[in-house]
Specification:
Structural class: mainly alpha
CATH architecture of the domain at 79-229: 3-Layer(aba) Sandwich
CATH class of the domain at 79-229: Alpha Beta
Strand order of the largest sheet: 1-2-3
Bound molecules: glutamic acid, zinc ion
Shape: elongated
Radius of gyration: 32 Å
Distance between the termini: 81 Å
Number of strands: 12
CATH topology of the domain at 79-229: Rossmann fold
CATH superfamily of the domain at 79-229: HUPs
Length: 469
């Protein structure tokens, strides 16, 4: 039997990396087993769900390349179905109407807490007299599931047997007074109707799973196989949240992370390919994926590692492809007026130093704009001695006289200038780097000079010579 799995995000927020990891594991599992991966938008909370968030979730999944099979499903289009099932349960006495308002519930809960009693719904409406019921008949009412006595247990693929005593579960609402279903109810109906075979989701849903199992039992349906994934922690070992920086998938796109790197990184957050393999393409991930190698312990989200991995992926791209990716995240205000050839040369020289696409601008700003100022420490170190000015002056003259401005002639000009002054080339190279780039470190200077070209180089040397006066 081919598995059918799903990802069921709520469009009340962005696609969180945690949800993206859940989506990825489901997707990998479906691909590996030749099954299906379904996307269901859980927009039952009409007030908090927005079409904009739905669009962003879709955009995030598409950007990651986690395409789904079948059409896109919306729970908001299925309200009549949940209602039908709820009425069935009502008829069979498996759920009952609850007329308590939010305020009434809050006040009774407050009293219980003040008396240091644990609160769960007190079944007030289960015990209404026939007369009360008559009086309330036209009032808005929710439907609550009548939780039976006993134990609920299920076999989690990862955690083994999990169990809970029913006395720890309150009669939970399945249909709200506005006629919309709660998450647990809609989820079970849909997972059943879509013939979901495996549910892979976060550990934070274990308490929901017990309630869902109760529903499966009452409907007489076979529950799917559950796998609850450990949480993702931030670097301080608390649950990953906004405090730890970006958590929305599209934030990573903006930061210049490649989707293939994020996929590779997320895959290893709680799963291992074995043999310590770390860089794995999507196909390799599919090939080696199995629920058996999931880890039970929480995974720590290590941003440095993501950057490292991203750097590895950037390095593997062709210059053309890398330029395409950089352009995609937008040239922004730095709209470029340079020819493609020139930009490609800059891409080539920066590539192996880049860890994020945005590094292109950080590392290579001087290729597109004359440096406004020189690095402070650099000034102290390399612009300190009066001789420097003379050296740069001679170099500038040499460069100006060059007919062919290429790596070879550039290097020769620098070396002969150094020889003329009887000094090591480094004493020219360092001040020159500062003059041309405003910085003290960077890629090979000869290459920088060549890419910048004679005109820019001479102009910048002149500026530095004036600065040294
Ligand atoms: N809408 C739920 C969530 O985003 C779905 C959980 C589930 O996979 O059942 O957490
Ligand atoms: Zn009630």
């Amino acid at each position: 039997m081919k598995p059918i799995v799903r990802i069921a995000p709520s469009p009340t927020g962005f696609l969180h990396v945690g949800t993206a990891r859940v989506a990825l594991y489901n997707w990998l599992f479906a691909k590996k087993e030749g099954g299906k991966f379904i996307l269901r938008i859980e927009d039952t909370d009409i007030k908090r769900s927005t079409a904009e968030m739905t669009d962003l979730i879709i955009e995030s999944l598409k950007w990651l390349g986690l395409e789904w099979d079948e059409e896109l499903y919306f729970q908001s289009k299925r309200f009549h179905i949940y209602k039908k099932y709820a009425e069935e349960l009502l008829r069979d006495g498996i759920c009952y109407p609850c007329y308590c308002t939010h305020n009434e519930l809050e006040s009774r809960k407050g009293i219980a807490i003040a008396q240091k009693k644990a609160w769960k719904y007190d079944r007030k409406c289960l015990n209404l007299s026939d007369e009360d019921k008559k009086g309330l008949a036209r009032m808005p009412r929710a439907l609550r599931f009548f939780v039976p006595e006993g134990k609920i247990e299920f076999d989690d693929k990862l955690h083994g047997k999990l169990e809970k005593d029913c006395s720890d579960i309150e009669d939970f609402v399945i249909l709200k007074s506005d006629g919309t279903p709660t998450y647990n109810f809609a989820c079970v109906i849909d997972d059943h109707e879509f013939k979901i075979t495996h549910i892979i989701r976060g550990e934070d849903h274990i308490s929901n799973t017990f309630k869902q199992i109760l529903l499966y039992q009452k409907f007489g349906w076979e529950p799917p196989i559950f796998t609850h994934l450990p949480l993702i922690l931030g670097s301080d070992r608390s649950k990953l949240s906004k405090r730890h920086g970006a958590i929305s998938v599209l934030d990573y796109r903006e930061q210049g992370i490649l989707p293939e790197a994020l996929i590779n990184f997320l895959a290893l957050l709680g799963w291992s390919a074995g043999e310590d393999r770390e860089i794995l393409s999507k196909d390799e991930l599919i090939d080696s994926f199995s629920l058996e190698r999931l880890s039970k312990t929480p995974a720590v989200f290590d941003y440095q590692k993501l950057e490292w991995m991203n750097g590895e992926y950037i390095n593997k791209l062709s210059d053309e492809e890398l330029l395409k990716r950089i352009s995609k995240i937008g040239f922004g205000s730095r709209e470029l007026n340079f020819d493609r050839e020139y930009i490609l040369k800059v891409v080539a020289i920066l590539k192996e130093r880049m860890r994020k696409l945005t590094d292109f601008w950080e590392l290579g700003a001087y290729f597109f704009k004359e440096p406004k100022e020189y690095d402070k420490e650099g000034i102290e170190k390399h612009f300190k001695y009066p001789e420097t000015q003379k050296r740069l002056l001679l170099l500038e003259t040499r460069f100006s006289g060059l007919k062919d401005f290429n790596l070879e002639t550039i290097e020769k000009a620098i070396r002969t200038t150094a020889e003329e002054f009887g000094i090591k080339a480094a004493l020219i190279i360092h001040p020159m780097r500062l003059a041309l780039t405003g910085r003290t470190v960077g890629p090979s200077l000869f290459h920088i000079v060549e890419i910048l070209g004679k005109e820019r180089v001479v102009k910048r040397l002149n500026k530095a010579i004036k600065f040294l006066r």
